[in-house]
Amino acid sequence: MPVITFANTKGGAGKTTAVLLLATELARMGHRVTVLDADPQLWISRWSEMSGEMRNLSVISHVTMASMETHIRENRSNTDCFIIDLPGTKSPLLTMALGISDHVLIPVQGSAMDARGASEVLEHIELLNRKMGMKIDHSVVLTRVNAMISTRSMLLVKALLAEKNVRVLNTPIAERAAFRDIFDCGGTLEALDCQKVSNVEKAMENVRNFAYEVLRLMPVRVVRSDRDGKFLGRKAA
């Protein structure tokens, strides 16, 4: 029952989009996912209301410091993976969420402001490690990446992260119209009309690769497979 937290203290880094893409893909694979929406903007909760009940996926809204651990404890028996969407600002929730996470994903666009927000999360992780002896596994995921162009800003961000020895996922989240449309229309990528939305198949491939890479980072190795015998990832016992 891993807990994955998405954190960047700068809003607009693609954090909530990454949360939604991972949550829906894990649910599609057959994992039971509970998203804890602690972001005051409540984008995930609004998407959930539009989408209606979805198989293997539930969203809990208005999560606070007082309620976060209770939600996890009460849903432990019916959840394979918790995903926490934190506010895109500095918040006391950050310390609590980092402390209970099996892995922290830090979304970063190719901008100095995003890199600064990511640095604040990394510094907080280092502080908890130094002061409390907590070993918090973490990675950066690059978001809204133009698949055709490597901008100067993105190259600088990559160089900065490499200099700090920060793990960067091999799978960036591309800039896709399909990722915006699921927030506007509800539902999942599979439900989008390929005649109206471009490159849906490429968007789905991007998300599958992203989810597989995240699953490989999880600490518990229990393999699940679908009817075709394909590897689906890891599931907490």
Please give a structural write-up.
By secondary structure, the chain is an alpha/beta fold. The chain has a single domain, classed as P-loop containing nucleotide triphosphate hydrolases (Rossmann fold, 3-Layer(aba) Sandwich). It is built from 8 helices and 8 strands, in the order βαβαβαβαβαβαααββ. It has helices at 15-29, 43-51, 68-75, 93-100, 112-132, 152-163, 177-185, 200-216, and strands at 3-6, 33-37, 57-60, 81-85, 103-108, 138-142, 223-225, 231-234. Helix 2 crosses helix 7 (177-185) and helix 4 (93-100) crosses helix 5. It starts with a strand and ends with a strand. Residues 221-237 have low confidence and may be disordered.
Q: What would CATH call the architecture?
A: 3-Layer(aba) Sandwich
CATH class: Alpha Beta
- Rounded Rg: 17 Å
Number of helices: 8
Give, in order, the helices and strands: EHEHEHEHEHEHHHEE
The CATH topology label is Rossmann fold
Spatially, the strands of the biggest sheet line up as 3-2-4-1-5-6
Summed up, the domain count is: 1
Protein name: Chromosome partitioning protein ParA
InterPro entries: DNA_Partitioning_ATPase, P-loop_NTPase, VirC1
Pfam family, one: VirC1
In short:
By secondary structure, this protein is α/β, with parallel strands linked by helices. It has helices spanning 15-29, 43-51, 68-75, 93-100, 112-132, 152-163, 177-185, 200-216; strands at 3-6, 33-37, 57-60, 81-85, 103-108, 138-142, 223-225, 231-234. A six-stranded parallel β-sheet has the order 3-2-4-1-5-6, sandwiched between helices. A two-stranded antiparallel ribbon has the order 7-8.
